[in-house]
Here is the input.
Amino acid sequence: MNTKQFFFLCAVSLWSLTAAAQSNDYLWVNKTDGSSVSFALDNLQKITFTDDDIVVTPLAATAQTFAFAAVQKLTFEDSPTAIVSPSQQSQTSLIYFNSQSKEIVIESEKAIGNVAIYDLMGRVVNIPFFKKMEYLTTINVSHLPAGVYIVKTADSVKKLIINN
Here is the structure.
């Protein structure tokens, strides 16, 4: 996958997340100099990828331009101030990999809502779309290569080993 394809996938992910964004969801631009910039998704108008740059345009502010060469990664997080570890969260979902059906199973006491699957590099590899709020769902991951993945729901974060 080349750089433009990767950033196109990020744009699709951004569009998916912005559609369901809550007031505490953020896009992080992590730069190669070690600094980072965050943008609230519910206040984001668009993100544009040109030949050499990424342009992030908030609804009521001036657009910011980042050179591809200066961006280490783009990530989506729930909090602008801290990343909560799974042990610190109140987890009410049961998340596991069913190796026979090649599916991730999510069971929850409350409606599951948004789910994102990340690889260990922090890249979103799958954002399944649910037509309705469900308490039990499966996500086919047979297309993912074997490895370690992070599955994140509204109330849980789980590290899974997928051995397809």
